[in-house]
Design goal:
This protein is an alpha/beta fold. Helix content is 43%, strand content 18%.
Length: 277
């Protein structure tokens, strides 16, 4: 049997780790999708070369700095700027004109990962001449990615893809005007960052903290089970003003949630809903 096969953990071990993490640090992974969570824990054991699950558990219990790394691995969320450009095109053409009628615009990016989506939205608002009266709240469970948003620095190698996405989303300008290239990094303009408020927020346990016109939560709920999804949808319902908009990921759906009757889907293809009651 290979060392990799020896490291594969079962449900009992996974439950033990989840229980200890909640007891010691207050992070609740209980209702995360089991298969995904188990896969990520096994990956951590392999890449950090723990000889056994017991070694991982001991490290988590006695080394708070390692726990920070565990959270990073369990909550990793791959993203890119203007991901699913058709969604941003719809926002640009159909939602921003509606938001423009408000005296002030509040947008929440929940589970925002490393912040590419937040900067994408800031660019859309800038081009619609709405950034000056907007605030973008960027929250995530992972404090490390929150720090990345504050820096506004992304790999220069990704700018070609981001530029293509931007153009497909209806962007008409030269995308490179929004950042400064420095060696292998691209630093985005501070005027975009000036309208962002960053904070750690746990969708599982934290409560609503404002009333928003638009909420993004894309490709986060796929890692939650049905019970936890319902809990998060109720949180979004509490946090969204009437006639506000909710944007989900391509594989996520509000249709079968407890709050579904309060929302109408804007498009069959794009996962965008409007709160109607």
């Amino acid at each position: 049997m290979s060392s990799t096969e020896q490291n594969i953990i079962g449900d009992e071990e996974m439950n033990l780790l989840v229980t200890e993490v909640f007891r010691l640090y207050g992070y609740d992974f209980t209702n995360y999708a089991r298969a995904s969570l188990k896969r990520r824990i096994n990956r951590i054991i392999i890449i950090d070369r723990f000889p056994s699950f017991a070694e991982l558990l001991y490290r988590v219990k006695h080394d708070p700095s390692y726990f920070k790394r565990l959270v990073e691995e369990l909550t990793v969320n791959v993203t890119e700027m203007f991901r699913d450009p058709a969604v941003f095109k719809t926002i640009r053409e159909e939602i921003l004109p509606v938001l423009a009628t408000n005296p002030f615009i509040r947008i929440w990016h929940a589970g925002c990962a490393t912040g590419e989506e937040v900067y994408s939205m800031a660019i859309l608002l800038e081009e619609a001449n709405l950034l000056h009266k907007s605030l973008l709240y960027a929250t995530d469970l992972n404090p490390t990615v929150i720090e990345n948003i504050r820096r506004g620095i992304f790999p220069l190698s990704q700018m070609k893809q981001y530029s293509e996405n931007y153009n497909l989303s209806g962007g008409k300008k030269d995308f490179s005007q929004y950042y400064t290239a420095n060696y292998d990094r691209a630093k985005f303009d501070d005027r975009l960052k000036a309208k962002m408020i960053t904070a750690t927020h746990n969708l599982v346990s934290d409560r609503s903290f404002n009333e928003f016109n638009l909420i993004f939560c894309r490709n986060v709920l796929i890692y939650f089970d049905k019970q936890l999804q319902d809990k998060v949808f109720s949180l979004f319902d509490e946090s969204l003003q009437k006639l506000g908009f909710l944007v989900l990921g391509s594989k996520e759906n509000l249709r079968f949630s407890k709050v579904a009757k309060k929302f109408a889907q804007l498009h069959e293809k794009e996962k965008i809903w409007r709160k109607i009651t």
